[in-house]
Design goal:
The complex is a heterotrimer of chains A (265), B (289) and C (277).
Chain A (H helix, E strand, L loop, with lengths): L1 E14 L2 E14 L3 E6 L5 H9 L6 E6 L2 E2 L6 H6 E4 L13 H12 L4 H14 L16 H14 L4 E5 L7 H18 L2 E5 L3 H7 L2 E6 L2 E7 H6 L4 H8 L6 H12 L2
Parallel strand pairs in A: 3-8, 3-9, 6-7, 7-8
Antiparallel strand pairs in A: 1-2, 1-4, 4-5, 9-10
Helix pairs in contact in A: 3-4, 3-5, 4-5, 5-6, 9-10
Chain B lengths: L2 E14 L2 E14 L3 E5 L6 H8 L9 E9 L2 E2 L5 H7 L4 E4 L3 H4 L6 H12 L5 H14 L5 H6 L7 H13 L5 E5 L7 H18 L2 E6 L2 H7 L2 E6 L2 E7 H6 L4 H9 L23 E2 L5
Parallel strand pairs in B: 3-8, 3-9, 6-7, 7-8, 10-11
Antiparallel strand pairs in B: 1-2, 1-4, 4-5, 9-10
Helix pairs in contact in B: 4-5, 5-7, 7-8
Chain C lengths: L1 H9 L1 H18 L1 H4 L34 H37 L1 H16 L2 H11 L4 H27 L3 H9 L3 H37 L11 H9 L7 H27 L5
Helix pairs in contact in C: 2-4, 2-11, 4-5, 4-7, 4-9, 4-11, 5-7, 6-7, 7-9, 9-10, 9-11, 10-11
The chains are: A alpha/beta (265), B alpha/beta (289), C mainly alpha (277).
The complex binds adenosine-5'-triphosphate (2 copies) and magnesium ion (MG) (2 copies).
One adenosine-5'-triphosphate (ATP) binds next to strand 1, strand 2 and helix 1 of chain A.
GO biological process, one term (chain A): peptide transport
Protein name (chain A): ABC transporter ATP-binding protein
Family (chain A): Belongs to the ABC transporter superfamily.
Chain lengths: 265, 289, 277
Amino acid sequence: MSLLRINGVSKTFQTAGGPVHAVRDVSLEVAQGECLAVVGESGSGKTTLANMILGILAPSAGEIVFGGTPLTDRRSPAQRRAIQLVQQNPLSALNPKRSVGGSVRLGLDVYGIGTRAERWARVEAALEEVGLPADMRRRGPAALSGGQRQRVGIARALACEPDLVVLDEPTSALDVLVQARVLRLLNDLRRKKGLTYVFITHDLAVVRNVADRVAVFKSGRLEEIGPTERIFSAPEQPYTRALIGAVPVVDDAELKLRNTLAEAP
Amino acid sequence: MSDILDIRDLTLAFKGHRGLTEVLHGISLRIAAGERVALVGESGSGKSVTARIILGLLQETGSARVAGQVAFDGRDIMAMHPRDRAALRGTEMSMIFQDPTSSLNPTFTIGRQFAEVMHRRAPRLSRTACNARATEMLEEVSIPDPARVLDAYPFQLSGGMNQRVMIAMALVNHPKLLLADEPGTALDVSVQAQTLRLMHDLVEDHGTAVLFISHNLGVVREFADRVYVIYRGRIVEEGATDAVFHAPGHAYTRALMDAVPRITGVGLPEVPEVSDAFLAPMVRHGSAS
Amino acid sequence: MIRSLRIIAANPLSLTGLILVLLVVLAAALAPWIAPFPTHNGAIVDFAYANQAPNARNWMGTDLVGRDIFSRILYAYQISLLLGVVVLAIATPIGTVVGLLAGYLGGWAEAVLMRIVDIFLSIPPLVLAIAVMGVLEPTLTNAMIAVTAMWWPWYARLVYSIARSEREEGYVLAAEVIGAPTAHITFREILPNCLPAIITKMTLDMGFVIIIASSLSFLGLGVQPPTPDLGSMVAEGARYLPDSWWLTVFPGLAILLAVFGFNLLGDGLRDVLGVDE
Ligand SMILES: Nc1ncnc2c1ncn2[C@@H]1O[C@H](COP(=O)(O)OP(=O)(O)OP(=O)(O)O)[C@@H](O)[C@H]1O
Ligand SMILES: Nc1ncnc2c1ncn2[C@@H]1O[C@H](COP(=O)(O)OP(=O)(O)OP(=O)(O)O)[C@@H](O)[C@H]1O
Ligand SMILES: [Mg+2]
Ligand SMILES: [Mg+2]
């Protein structure tokens, strides 16, 4: 059964320079427990779509159905709790004037998860789950590395016990080595907790290794959607092929795959 | 030997509240004329500071302690008068930064900024000559309507366009060395790939040597002839791009290589935490370089 | 705290500021004990010693009715500091709340609130204060009201500009996704990031409030005699320049000292708290 259904959703921004159609008539479904990657060039509407799923923006048209119920502009705390976000920039995602634990605890307080006395224990458990020491909760974010901050961001989302996590370029600001560790962590957590991911990125090599299905966006439209295997072996749209062709690769097997795709009609 | 850049035993430390922090522990790096050399390593390993020493900028920073030898085109940068170092920048050596839009001046047109760069080398160049030369350069970086772009302000152009403008501006004075610090990481993958290919061809045509700084191994493989891998202020591996990518010799290089997700979908790698093997001695490939 | 003090102490200018401010505060607090003539803060006359130049008995001389100027300056500091503290204690919260709401909520709230702020800011401060004082009685309380009315918009402007940029930060988005109430986002998330700038501005402003209050009383609109006030002392004394120079010079120096101290300290705090202008 699909956990999330997006039904003919559009978003138009009214700006001084006229209307901007950021997302145009997009329909797709995300099944319980799957990882759907959303890829596309800059400005293709990925973040706008994410913000609509999260309830930060209201769609101009269409509806978003979650767990069988259409989501309205005014979401219940339970509906909010069920969908959480991990952001791109770990530097700005944590309040510099707040302890790490305070940031992670916010969701527990807002949703009333656990008793007051339990909450610090839950915060510590969430930190440990993402591979950070429990006593890090007392620290400020200033002294943490990019990778550690991103883990705190993940802990903050998971402490809310969500069903769906929207990851907006969760590793693109990180170094290769740190990225690899965070990606593994995200994969393990998904398996362990049966989470569903909407994984936004422009790195197709990452997509290939984490996603079950891929949705390709271009200028606000859904160009193509399908299982990861199929998208990488037989992309239907020239745009998808161009995206894959632009991926910088490191080994010869990858180079061969890229070249075969480039030569295909 | 016609080395355009010859760095030997370069050390750098910063003076702070708690004494000296060593950042570079004696790195040596050479670039031959017209050669494309990459410097790869993780965040904080010392890539950008190396570039800033070559440009002669850190030598003038009060808190920096720089020692070692830096020879540019046979001249000793370290011993040079700050004024002479400044004269080299933008003429004999130029620089491209990560974020194209913010490194252009938002208040001047592209044409005016071009003229300023050209006047560094030829102060008497007339306006029409400047425009003609700028147009020529913009055409070289495949900008479709150079006349319009010359009259435009940076914010009126896309990130990709600005990046091309930066490349054109960096090459307009025929520098002998181009320093490119993570060019295009602020751009989209496809735009980035395009601009890098363009830059690759262009420096080849002009015979410009490049020091290409990046933490993205895939990009390095496509761009560079030779690679230096830097880890915590030490060069750990050096060699021709092919050699390093086909037979990485140092544990750190291997870890870096393994960490890159593959589009062939072989799964996510297990990445070791910092290991003692990363501090092993430097690995050098062949003598071809 | 210890670390902050050390940073301030490391800079001779900030250290001077800190010492001056401490001196002024101590002078005000201990006035009844250290003033040579504690009774001279009121409507006392002592014509035997009227209009004396500085001497061993009256270090800064006496005024036209024979009151010790040094003692009156100490008491005047009490009034100045009280006025500064009260004005800032009212103006800062008002300005902060207005700025936070306008900066974070944006749209309609921003348009209305910032328009009001701009109207206040477009009136020259003294004119605004004089207008208020023209309607109200010239008393200490009303002087405070007048100065507060001209002061809060500056805080609104300051906090607004910070809140507006903080609104774009990821941590605000994170709190919004969680569905935290607006009060939490503004006061618990954004406000702590405005505090360093607010505290710095308050310190700098203590000096300016003292000047403005003195200017008001100089114009005869502030604190009324016989209460000692630095501004009125300068104003009265100015009529007897240059002969009875001590009537103006010492109160004038006292104003200078306080304003200088608060400004230097404020600049030092700016460095400690990492505020950039
Ligand atoms: N609040 C807004 N007002 C006006 N236009 C907007 C707004 N937010 C986004 N847009 C526009 O909508 C389009 C889609 O933006 P969006 O941020 O969703 O792209 P994206 O795919 O996430 O890009 P990136 O990869 O750069 O993050 C862009 O053209 C953008 O300029
Ligand atoms: N002006 C400075 N004062 C003190 N330390 C500095 C200064 N500039 C750089 N450093 C330190 O020098 C080290 C190397 O910095 P550098 O900017 O060269 O890293 P990098 O390899 O370019 O990393 P990145 O990929 O993040 O750009 C870092 O630990 C940094 O904190
Ligand atoms: Mg985005
Ligand atoms: Mg750098």
